[in-house]
Give the backbone structure.
Amino acid sequence: MNKSQSHIDKIGWQFDNTYTKLPDNMFSKLSPIPVEAPEVVIFNHTLSKEMGLDFSNINNEDLALIFSGNLLPKGSETIAQAYAGHQFGHFTMLGDGRAIVIGEHISKNNKRFDIQFKGSGKTPYSRNADGRAALGPMLREYIVSEAMHDLGIPTTRSLAVVKTGETVMRETPLQGAILTRVASSHIRVGTFQYTVFSKDKNDLKIFFDYTIKRHYPHIKNSKNPAIELLKIVIEKQIKLVTDWMRVGFIHGVMNTDNMAISGETIDYGPCAFMDTYDPETVFSSIDYHGRYAYFNQPSITRWNLERFAESLVPLIDDNKDKAVEIATEIINSFAEKYKKNWFEMMQKKLGLIGEESKDENLIIDLLSWMHQNKADYTNTFCFLMNENIQENKIYQNQEFISWKNQWQERLKLHNNSPEKSLKLMRLANPLVIPRNHKVEEALSAATNNNDLTKIRKLLKVLQNPYKNNSEIADYQYAPPPSNEKYKTFCGT
Ligand code: AMP
Ligand code: MG
């Protein structure tokens, strides 16, 4: 054995692959297609440590071989997963068209993670596309997913981005890249939808049991595990979308194949954070009708959960009508539950302690003012926390001052102190988010000039989004006024 191989064997991969034991039609076994000249662009040392992996003795060449899929670790079993999904409301058979799960790694604290290469070449699910990914979008997923994690929002993570040394053809030729995505699983609403269409009627039950064992083993022996799973996933997704609303995140492509049963944010394509508060904000260039606009996200979450509930119907009750009735009742609880979560979240953003009948109006009045006056979403809450944001002329507006007076009177109720409110607000309001112009600036330096310093700095600043320090000021500015609306592309 050569020296490099012995180091590679000591990385600490602990593969325990269970997905490959599912029925054959749930996945296709195949290897990533080797790439020409792999080169590491960025590697997440913190995450690798959290996963119990040790790359300290691996040189950059070997790191590139490993994270391009050119050199697979022992114990890996490489598969592309099959799934279906409603894309912009239309049902389609899909699957990993440009991704390969290389295995399930068990970390030191016994957590199971899918290790997935995104951009690893054609699979049986690629349809007419090339199975590859471009450097910009993969770095974008790396930045935004790590930022989400640091914001305390459930998400898949990013372990590495490797350039392939190959060109991918999009509108222009671009550098190819592979992202290593780490997820508690890649089980999607769309994976359930897929099993319902399977020729073998047992597949749904087998996959359901698998999902419960993997994510929610405590409900296995409950009276009706299918009902329990539906309730848990509703709760997780409400929590997730409430968090997105809290920080102004717009996922951009909330198709049912991009909704994970684990409750993690998954599939960072055309996502972006809102600067100016406008509930109708859409960034994605293909979202012509605003289906996935900021304020539509909760109702789309519900719509996707309805599709999930439909898939579970055969497992809820043998009597279809009864099953549908039960599922409908559970789904109908969404609106009230979401509203409660959203309201409590907004109360925290404003440091409101206790409950007052006027709270809802107070919240809505602020949002309307922000909308009408084109105020920056993140910075308005920073201003209310007395965080020194530079551009604050807008807050001298009379209407705002009178709202602020009302708010300050309200804060005094319930035996409250300003310190208590501020403490609450500090936990709910990030001081810094991955602003689009900062992300673009960093990506452009990386993709055009091979300069990673801006990405590294951005990632560092985003590591502590709730704490003030001298480095963040530059990252708090709203984007320079521009007539051109920011647009994101699907990252394919
Ligand atoms: P996404 O928009 O990333 O959620 O992808 C939707 C579907 O298109 C999934 O089945 C992907 O695997 C597939 N897909 C996206 N990009 C590519 C590509 N470059 N090559 C093959 N399949 C792709
Ligand atoms: Mg997807």
Observations:
- The pocket of adenosine monophosphate (ligand 1) is lined by residues 94-98, 125-126, 129-132, 253, 257-258, 267, 269, 490, 492 (CB under 6 Å).
